[in-house]
Each structure stands twice: as C-alpha cells, then as structure tokens.
Amino acid sequence: MSSITTSRGYAIHDTKDYKNFKVIEYPLKKEEADDVTVHVDVCGTCGSDHHTISGGWGPLTHPEYIITGHEIVGKVVQVGPNVKEFKVGDRVGIGAQAGSCGKCKECQNDNENYCSVSPVDTYNGKWPSGDYSQGGYSTHVRAQQKFVFHLPEQITSEDAASILLGKSSREHNLIASVHLFRLCAGITSCSPLFRNNVGQGSKVGVVGLGGLGHYAVLFAVALGAEVTVSIFAKKQCHLPFSPVYPIFEQVFSHSERKKDDALKMGAKHFVTTTGDFAKDHALSLDIIICTASNASLPLNELITCLVPQGKFVWNGMPETDWPALRSQTMAGNGAFIGSSHIGSKAEITRMLQLAADKNIKPWITTRPMKEAAQSIEDVETGRARYRTILIQDIDQ
Amino acid sequence: MSSITTSRGYAIHDTKDYKNFKVIEYPLKKEEADDVTVHVDVCGTCGSDHHTISGGWGPLTHPEYIITGHEIVGKVVQVGPNVKEFKVGDRVGIGAQAGSCGKCKECQNDNENYCSVSPVDTYNGKWPSGDYSQGGYSTHVRAQQKFVFHLPEQITSEDAASILLGKSSREHNLIASVHLFRLCAGITSCSPLFRNNVGQGSKVGVVGLGGLGHYAVLFAVALGAEVTVSIFAKKQCHLPFSPVYPIFEQVFSHSERKKDDALKMGAKHFVTTTGDFAKDHALSLDIIICTASNASLPLNELITCLVPQGKFVWNGMPETDWPALRSQTMAGNGAFIGSSHIGSKAEITRMLQLAADKNIKPWITTRPMKEAAQSIEDVETGRARYRTILIQDIDQ
Asked: Which CATH topology does B6-181+361-391 take?
C-alpha cells in the first residue's frame, strides 16, 4: 500500500461564516515513527468545534482553513515503524490530543495531557515539525500512538462494521457504545471524578446538562456517587447579588425536560438556580463538575454549596472570563475552583473499563457528516440530546 | 470574685481615622455556659486589623466602634459552668474565631472553622444573642471554650510570667515561642499545608513574605518541604500579558533584603516575578501559599508554576477581586485556586506540637499596646519584620 499523505475533510475557511463547510483535500502531517494513521468512520461534534470555528477561542492556527472533530472512531490504515500497540485494521479511537513530547515529567507520569513542552491538539494545533493538525470531520487523522485507543472487546467486529457503515437497525445503541470512546466529552468529565476519588457515597454536583454534563452524570452515577444536577438560564442569570435570577417561562419548560432526562440518567436531585437554592444546598457537595460553556452563572452561590475544601471543576470552556472571585468568596468553605484538560491514557483505559463494566450508554443522535452545520447549530442552541455523532460520508 | 461584664480596649471609631486609637470601656458579650473569659497579656497585629479598621473589608458591625486584635495570649479569669478544659489562671490563646454553632456537620467534624450556621469572628462579629464581639487590643476577651487553646508545656510558668509582664531580657525569644499560639497567621498558613499533605519532598511556593508568608515558610520547612519564596512589586505589577513587570529599583533592594530573610527562614529558592520567571518554574510546585494582601500580582503566570492538579491557596485577603480567571487558564495544568479560613482545634493542636517538636521561632518585634497605630502602619507599609506583638499596658 502506498503511503497516505493527504486527507479530505469538511473545512471552514472563515470564522465569520462558520457553518459553511466545504470538502477540501489537504496534507496530513508528515508521518513520524510513532504515528498511527486512522481512517475516520464516525466523529462526535463537541462544543470545542463550535467555539473554534466561530473564532470564540481566538484565531485559527492554519491561515486558511480548519477541520474540526476530536471524538473519532475509525480504523488504523497505516502505522509508523515504532508503533507496536496497533496494526492496520484495528478499530480505534482518537480524542482531543494527538501528540506530546513524550519525554517530560508529565509525559512520563501519566499526565501527558498536561505536557507543556509540545502538546498538540487533534485539530487547530501545530506539530513541532511545523505541520498543522486537522480533525475528524474528514477521511483521515494522524496521531501519536499514545493518543490512539483500542476499542473494548465487548463490541464485536461484526457489530462495529454495521455501526461504522451506519446501516444497522441497531445502529443507535451500538454507536452509543462505541461513542464511549469519544475521548473529549467522556474523559473530560471522567478525569476529575477519578482524580478526586469520587466513589460510593460521594456527593457530586453537575452544572449544566449538555454533552459534557450528561457524561458527568452517567459516570458519577456509575462510580456510586449521589448526583445533583443543576441547570440555569444561560445568559439570563445575573451575578452575583440579585436574590432571584430572572428565569423566564421558556426556561422553566427547558428545565422540566432536562429534569426528566437527568433523573433517567441516574441523578438523584435536580435544582434550578433560583431563589434560595444556594442556602438550601450549602456545604452539601464534595465536588461540582461545571460543564457550562457560558460564564454567566451564579458562581459565588454555587461555590457555597461545596463542603470544606470541596472542588468546583469548571470543565466547560466559556469564551469569556469567569465571574469575579476573591479570597473572601473562597474562604467561607475553603473551596477550590479549577479546570481540567481531557485525561491520560491510563484514565481513558479506566473509563473504558468502567463503561464496559457498568454498561453505560450515552445519549446520542446521529447524522451524516455532511450535516455538520446542523450538528454545530444543535450544540450552539443547546438542542443536542446530548451528543451528535457524524457518520462518515465523504468516501461514499 | 464578682462576674466580669466589661472590658477596656483601644478602639477605633471611624474607618476614615483608623489610626486614632482611644481607650474605651465596653460590655463583653453576656456569659454563656461554654464561655471562657481571658485577660489579655499580649496580642499580635494582623493584616486583618488594618483591613477592618480602614473599612477595606466593608463597614463595621458595631455602629460606633471596633476593637481589633485576634492573636491573643492571656490568662483565664472566668469560666462558664460547662467549661471543663480550662480553669481560672490557665495561660491560653485565642485566635480569629470566638464561636460557632457547635452542632452542624462542620462543627462535629473538625471543621468548626467552616461552620456556616453561626460562626463568630473574634472581633467585628455578632453573637446569636445580638451581642457584638470585640478583640484583643483590650483587657478582656470572651470566647467559647472550643476556640480557646492551651499553651504548650515547653514554656514554664515562670518564663510566661516574665513574658507576659514584658520585663524579661529574654522577652523576645519567649514571646516568640508564645506567639506561635497566635491563631490567625500561624494556623492560616499551616492549615492548607496540613490539609494538602505537605511533607518530606513536597515543593511549596510562598508568595509574599510578610506575617503570613514567613509562617508559611517556617512551617513548610518544618514539615520537610522544599520551599520557594516569590515576592513581587506590589501595585506595580500589571496583569497578565506584559512580558516584563515594571519593578523599580526600590523594589529590588526590598527584594534583596527579603531574600536574605527567606533563606534564613529555611527557604531554598527565592524568585522575583520578573521576566521569564514563570517559564523557568513551569509545573514545578505542588502547592503555592499566596499571602499577598494586594491582588495586583501575575496570577496567571504563578498558576503555571503548579504541577498538574496543584493548588494555589490565596490566604491573603485583598480588598479587591483577584485578577480575572477563565477555564483555559486553569486547564493548562488542571490547577486549582482557593482560599482557606484559619484552622480547626485539631489542626491548631497539631501545629503547636509541630512548633514544639521543631523549635520553630517566628520573627517578631514587640511594642506596648499603646503603639497600636504604629503597629498598624508597619503592617500597612510592609515594614513589619515579620509580625508585631502588642504588650498589654492598659492595666499598668
């Protein structure tokens, strides 16, 4: 087989025209010894895709175009000479990171997701060679073997084939299973649960119930935690001292629908951030996973819901600063606020095992990849229930 | 002995005239069954005193006056009927908290410093009865027994007497020992070290070298940590993207003096936050204790100096918001930022034992209590080296 050097993908050329996807052909990074080249079968749509193509997270790395997508499942089609873990034909996943230096303290200690020497995002990144990284709304993606993941045995090859061709009547459930391998939303929610020892008896809050949030609920429940889901009226909440947040009727119905879903996912409590919610839940949660991608939320009040030294992990990535904080805000319960960056291979492996053991099924919908614009719009408007998977159609 | 109902103290009557201390007589809180009444022998001056009397932390609780001081050593002169731990004549300490509900989950689990039901600060607070709390720039303070602490056996009664009368030539060192019991600066620095398992091999950063900071260095060193002290040009640093902070010559000399002191206290490294300091120290510290009482510091850069999931504990209490933060800032190393509120009785007991075991001597100066204004000014200007103890003089 001749060496693969190019890919075709759904590209955006202008952040001001960010739903105008056009299929283009472009060069893959030059293959290096540790690289695995994957043919993309399905790719999830992540909030990151929307933030990136709309310019909300800043300018694009490549001067002309961007191909997003970092929740990739596909098949290995080429491997570099150092690759021992994968062979051509293996079904694998790739997440939000495609490379790192491999040598620093972080890379050597299961923290490669925190490599600061040469971390490379799966798309909108740049390799040390100067090549650009492009994502999975495409036919091919190339990544270092450390950032490629085997699919679990529970999914047979036959099932996988039907999923990946998008033809089986069992498609939904099976893709759901494969979709667990999506290495952005799933592991982004799971890593802080693991790193903070969430388990039986833990009290976990989840703020926001979208793609990230629904994973946080599913995994926290699977770990044995008692989960409280909180949602709020995006853009209509005002911080921080108004006693009642102006939540409109429309939002209440939104809230009711999400409440039903949250309880079905295993959450025990559902809270809308109105009135005295913070007083009612003071000092009650060990950790809050905040998946909100909009910074307009009652942060000070939410923090008071944590136990002493509890943690507020804001995994959503708003395009603006968090509401203002000061020592006095945090000293009341000695709480901490931070964020998290995907997860390490060790954590992803643990997540996969957990998903297999507990038969966790994410809630997804599927679309052909040519409907990427619609999928982006679903993320943008919060209509996605709760994650959209794009099925490869460029080859067909 | 007739029941004690009043105290005399150095009061401030106007936050706009906050160095004009006048001795007044005022009522103590009504005695309850768990209360211990202490005659004050010495009282430390804390940054909190300055922030409070100058109105920087907001309006005063009592409509007419405030008596600050919450680093108190004195003798028990009266106990309520439920008090078993103390008897009249005991030499004790009182810190920044004088009361709590005693019944909530926090109070029952060695987190009484995080009681949210009815926590009462030693001064500028209000008891559930409606009585005001006033501090230790005074003859008497009354607190619940949970917030009163025995002094260690290492200090004999004879020594203590000479200290407390302020007459011995050995005064400095002995007061230094007693001063360890100061339950604001000492425990505020110690509690996050304890709660984050700082020990042999830990890498601890300390930002700012004043009262709090010098305790953080002494205790972290005593716990076996490798300590890096960082200071910066207060009010002259600009955040966050200027590559070089405008630090003036005057500050450099300030820096050199503090460097000598930091190394004498046991710190291994000393860093001024100029140029590429953050790059040079990226991902190197397990925890940073930030004692700065001014929010103008290069926060984003300091956070990048933490290891993955490292913690930035901002124990200083600036009067303004922290520099702006966002998820992206914190995701780079998955770090956390928070604060801390003094410490529990269990932690204070542990701190005292540590101080006794390691013979920790804080760096202090002493003044008669009538020089409170000068002591406040030393805190305000950063001239205190590193803590001032006021010696009782109202009775004399």
From this structure: Quinone Oxidoreductase; Chain A, domain 1 (3.90.180)
